[in-house]
Amino acid sequence: MERNHPWQPDIIKLNDLSFVLSAGLLCLTKKIKNMRYNILIVLLLVTLTSFGQEVFKGEHFIEVTGSAEMEVEPNEIFLFIRLREFEENRTKVSLEKLDQDFLQALKAANIDKKNLALADAGSNLSRIRRKDKDAFREKSYELKLTSAAELEKFLEKIEPVKVQQLDLTRLSHTDMEKFKIDLKVKALQAAQTKASTLLKSIGAEIGKPIMVRDWDQDPVQPMPQARMSNMMYKSEEMDKDIGDESQIGFRKLKLRAQITAQFGIQ
Questions:
Q1: What is the enclosing helix (H) or strand (E) of 96?
Q2: Superfamily per CATH, domain 60-73+175-223+252-266
Q3: Of 20, 65, 70, 157, which cross-links 105 as Cys (Cβ 3.0–4.6 Å)?
Q4: What are the residue boundaries of the structural domains of the chain, listed by start?
Q5: What pTM does this model have?
Q6: With contact defined as beta carbons under 8 Å apart, do 143 and 78 qualify?
């Protein structure tokens, strides 16, 4: 029976030692992972605690809304005008003739031509498109006027011109942005006054502003007090109908600003 040489290691014992070392390394790796996981949890809890403290600090405030209003007389009046060919006594009235009559009416009303612009990109191509004799070409303008009196004079001079459509599209003012900023300042001041009054009623004092939120609001567009009709080749009956409403006036533009603000409580 053969025996191991005295200096040769026992193969079985070496295998056992390797297994023990592997198990130890695996256990150590798991412990390291667990430690990292625990550290992450601790950091997360610290972060949430700090955040909660900050939120709690921010809860000592009052939130109020202030508003301000004003009315202004519009000095920008925008009109949409459409000219379109039509037949009269079996003869087509050309777009060139309508355009010429319209521009003459504009001149007669002493309205600067620089306030007139094409309302769409296709209008400037009306002379070279749709040359079919049975087609009816059209052209659209946008006209800017400065007062109700100027509008009334324009309507008087354009009456003989057979326009297809005439609409008042919007009203505005040249200082609109300035008015809006002034109103926002007044709305914020109103919010501050409201917060101060409410806090004094419970024996507290208003602190520094924490947050200010602006709510943009478009001006209310008033309609003209006299009718702006869509004129489709006005007849004598329509002229009689409008006769009693020749005086044109506008309600003022209504502007409103609203501000929400938070103030600290002392």
A1: helix 95-108
A2: Protein of unknown function (DUF541), domain 1 (3.30.110.170)
A3: 157
A4: 13-48, 60-73+175-223+252-266, 76-172
A5: 0.62
A6: yes
